[in-house]
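in:
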């Protein structure tokens, strides 16, 4: 979540660096006054009862069923075997990434630190997660056991070692982004010989979920308006992924409910408060900078995709409001102007410190930011649903074929998404 130049696009500034890049100022007591932020058939929101009721009705989770299903993997295998474009181009990017090598060796840590005064070692975690995911993809597509073994060994090494994720407020970023990404790698490897799924699930439930839940319910002791929407979204993504990985409906219900009605800035009505003509919805973080705005789009896309694969249509929630927000972000970052209704940001923590700032226009900071997030949205909204989303389509074409962790610079911003959407999402 920090800056790193892209080999497919312009350099980026500050896509969530460390606490200094996220926070307005330090608060007493360890608080940081920051504001950062085959699919099932679509189910209309009115018919969606929440995961707890769904499980009670006797329905079970689809596995694999986070970002990808077995139907998706069958499509990838067939297209790569046939050397069909653009899947083959996506495969070539994956195969060229050093993280996808079966020779990758894990470096598990007992304690991961992100933010604060300690040694910042979280890069070790996000590199190993990228390697686990990429090797898992290669195994599912080619059947190469060397890649499968590499992914399994990375996941087993971490689940047998990691005890704590800590730091300043940025520890919640680590628990969210790396939580949902780790769960996705493990979901792909479910049932693989020698993979200790039970131990991995225990790690997710003991190390990651308690931090996710604490942030979503308490927001680090700050005002509910303090943290930008991307913080809520990375937390929702982790809770949703852990709920599915661990077959716990209450966690899935928690994430979906917050997505729709949560009090924080990451819920749909707060992240996209204003609708405009032309199918646009204001993404409030566009007033802040484009690194965080595109981060939020990528995270919301991951939430929608994981929910979709379990039969929940968050993509279409509130008349496809997310599509309108993503169109808004894409339009501005492609160089076009967008309307912007002033947004007042109230930050701080009760009894400690507070302030406010009003954003009056879209920020040029990091404009044109490149992330591997657009193929997922393009293929769902345009190709699957037949909707008109010209700016999403244009951005997807601009960055095609999408890479993944290691293709967009060495810093954490290049690892905020698992990526490879041209290979994995093209229909």
């Amino acid at each position: 979540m920090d800056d790193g130049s892209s080999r497919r696009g312009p350099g980026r500034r500050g896509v969530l660096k460390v606490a200094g890049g996220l926070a307005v100022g330090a608060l007493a007591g360890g608080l940081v006054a920051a504001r950062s932020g085959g699919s099932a058939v679509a189910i209309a929101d009115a018919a969606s009862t929440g995961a707890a009721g769904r499980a009670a009705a006797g329905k079970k989770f689809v596995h694999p069923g986070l970002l990808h299903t077995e139907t998706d993997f069958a499509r990838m295998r067939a297209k790569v075997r046939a050397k069909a474009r653009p899947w083959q181009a996506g495969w070539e990017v994956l195969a060229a990434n050093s993280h996808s090598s079966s020779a990758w060796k894990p470096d598990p840590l007992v304690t991961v630190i992100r933010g604060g005064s300690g040694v910042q070692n979280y890069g070790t975690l996000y590199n190993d997660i990228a390697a686990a995911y990429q090797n898992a993809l290669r195994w599912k597509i080619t059947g190469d056991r060397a890649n499968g073994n590499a992914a399994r060994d990375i996941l087993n090494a971490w689940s047998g070692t990691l005890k704590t994720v800590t730091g300043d407020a940025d520890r919640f970023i680590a628990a969210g982004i790396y939580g949902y990404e780790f769960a996705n790698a493990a979901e792909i490897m479910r049932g693989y010989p020698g993979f200790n799924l039970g131990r991995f699930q225990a790690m997710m439930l003991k190390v990651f979920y308690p931090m996710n839940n604490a942030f979503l319910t308490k927001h680090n002791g700050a005002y509910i308006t303090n943290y930008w929407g991307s913080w809520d979204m990375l937390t929702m993504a982790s809770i949703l992924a852990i709920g599915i990985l661990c077959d716990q409906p209450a966690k899935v219900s928690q994430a979906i409910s917050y997505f729709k009605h949560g009090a924080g800035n990451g819920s749909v009505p707060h992240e996209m408060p204003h609708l405009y003509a032309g199918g646009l919805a204001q993404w409030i973080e566009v007033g802040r900078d484009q690194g965080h705005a595109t981060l939020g789009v990528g995270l919301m896309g991951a939430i929608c995709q994981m929910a979709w694969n379990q039969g929940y249509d968050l993509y279409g929630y509130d008349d496809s409001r997310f599509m309108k927000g993503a169109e808004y972000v894409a339009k501005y970052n492609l160089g076009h102007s967008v309307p912007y209704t002033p947004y007042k940001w109230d930050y701080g923590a009760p009894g400690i410190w507070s302030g406010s700032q009003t954003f009056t226009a879209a920020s040029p900071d990091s404009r044109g930011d490149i992330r591997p997030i657009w193929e997922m949205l393009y293929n769902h909204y345009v190709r699957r649903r037949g909707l008109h989303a010209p700016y999403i389509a244009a951005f997807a074409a601009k960055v095609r074929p999408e890479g993944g962790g290691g293709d967009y610079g060495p810093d954490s911003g290049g690892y905020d998404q698992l990526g490879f959407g041209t290979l994995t999402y093209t229909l």
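note: The chain has one domain: 19-425.
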